[in-house]
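Q&A log
Question type: sequence-to-structure
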Amino acid sequence: MIYFQAGSTESNLSADDLRGGLHAALRAIGERRKVLAIPPDYTRLPSRSGELTRYCWEFYGDRLADILPALGTHTPMTGEQMSHMFGQVPRDLFRVHDWRNDVLTLGTVPAEFVREVSGGACDYTWPAQVNRLLLEGGHDLILSIGQVVPHEVVGMANYNKNIFVGTGGTEAIHKSHYIGAVYGMEDMMGRIDTPVRRIFNYASEHFLHRLPIVYVLTVVGVNEAGEHQTYGLFVGDDSSVFDQAARLSIQVNFQLLDKPLDKVLVWLDPAEFKSTWLGNKSVYRTRMALADDGELIVLAPGLVEFGEDRRIDELIRKYGYFGTPHTLKAVREN
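Response status: OK
Response body:
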């Protein structure tokens, strides 16, 4: 069911528009006594999820019991980042997701299904894992907040990815990302229906139905003036809300070119991009536009590490970046 939707390629939603739309949706949902909000972390700052989390707090007051940023494998947010993103929301509401130790498995997607949707690229089961707070917290509403934007692993980010990856565990995160990598980024980026999304949807249909999750999705793009513009807000509890947001996002977040580019220069904001783990988006989001033998120059003044996680950083330092065939060989041998 969709509780609220507003947006078009011409829309430019203000703070008042977002607050009014979200509050209208929350009124439509009905009275709730204990609410959990799951916004993204600081790496998704332009999503306006920080504002929306603040509007949730304004609406529910002390009934907003917990805020669990969907870190995935990312570094926990600093106090400065939390203040910048969430404003005056009380710090004692925030919980830190421990993706290695603090998860529960809801169920398992069969290997047969994974093999079928991946075209035989992968042949293993996939565990639907979430932070234990979602199951044990006693919440009667879980608000999953975030931006629907082109993504290299799942096609279009957010919706149930925010749950299964943002609050997921080691095995779920690694296996889903591996499926996306082996299947091929060029066949994933900007597509609504992808192997990884089908796996997430299978898990939602079979295992998430017991949880009172409502998705709060924004569509944000960069306009012709080079500024972030909010084109849409969609609130609902099933796949239809994601479909609406994703279709609009594709329209405002892709630029089609008449011919390939010979040289591309990318600037990575030092406040947001401190690792190649995130900075590699400069590769993912330009490679299909680059001409054969084209040149990509990445300016990354804030770069301090390879992985957001210490262990992942060690693995990247050990194996480096050598493309798909080399990586597949390394996986087979080690």
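Response note: The radius of gyration is 19 Å.
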